[in-house]
Write a structure and sequence with these properties.
By secondary structure, the protein is α+β, with helices and mostly antiparallel strands. The protein has one helix spanning 55-72; strands at residues 5-12, 16-21, 24-29, 41-45, 48-53. InterPro entries: Hydrogenase_HupF/HypC.
């Protein structure tokens, strides 16, 4: 399974960027993105930023990753997926 991390751009030269997620820094390619700047939130797969994220998307992805971690530890994870309880999950607009 491949997971994307929501990372924040710390510095960039327009081709590569130093990104951070929970005190981990990683140098990633930003060549797939048209316009990136310091402070932008990006979704990173295999050391490439694949798209920009808004604050809401970043929060949902971070909470989902927290939920997966809790589940792997055998802890209750329902609170991390509260937006899914009682409704059918919907595909994000970009996947429809």
């Amino acid at each position: 399974m491949c997971l994307g991390l929501p990372m924040t751009i710390v510095e960039t030269d327009g081709i590569n960027a130093l990104c951070e997620y929970r005190n981990e820094q990683r140098r990633v390619s930003v060549m797939l993105l048209a316009d990136v700047s310091v402070g932008a939130k990006v979704l990173v797969h295999i050391d490439s930023a694949v798209r920009l994220l808004d604050e809401h998307e970043e929060r949902l992805i971070s909470e989902a990753l927290d939920g997966l971690e809790a589940s792997l530890k055998g802890q209750d994870c329902d609170r991390f997926f509260a937006d899914l309880i009682g409704r059918e999950p919907q595909l994000p607009e970009h996947l429809r």
